[in-house]
Amino acid sequence: MVLPAACLFDLDGLLLDTEPLHARAWQQAARHFGRELSADELMALRGRRRLDCADQVRGWITASGGPALSSSELLAVRQPIAEALLVQAPPMAGAPELVAHCHRRGIPMALATSSSREAVALKAGPHPWLQPIGVRVHGDDPELQRGKPAPDVFLLAAQRLGVDATACWAFEDSPAGVAAAQAAGCRVHVLPPPHLDGDALARTYPGEPTRLTDLHQVIGALEAAQ
Asked: N or C: which end of the chain has fewer CB within 10 A?
């Protein structure tokens, strides 16, 4: 196995355990307007940019007979909930060790996230172990044309590192993120949420991403690579 030219990391649900908190914030905001979100709907929001999620949720609210909202009206309810929750997010198992391992070995790293720069600063503030990931593509990056599941975030991250995306390992947890990394030509590793197994995994993540149970596995794979 050959070492990757770089490791491209998602943030939410991959390095930080934020996805249950994001889901809770979207659920509470939708409930405020009379709409309960299903588990499948919450999964569909995973990994996508905030405004894209807001458009989707307000569409669900309107389609079920709720009020016709603007994104700003929905986010005015959702954002205070999310901000109070997200600063509490712990690291995912093995995430600090994996970042430290890549840093020690000189493997270039980039963050390829749908979260805005402001949101990343909020979430990453309590986690100084994230600082070695100096190259970051945010969901509101002015050079980012399209969000996940389009490949743009991974292509831009690889470009800024000066490497070919097809020589990179990408790490994701969401269906949208996996699709984006696959479309960019990366070697894709997925860390699925624990409630998915068997056929549900295959339906949720089509193609052939490498499935992980935690990020400690990646350290072993990098140690074995030449």
From this structure: C
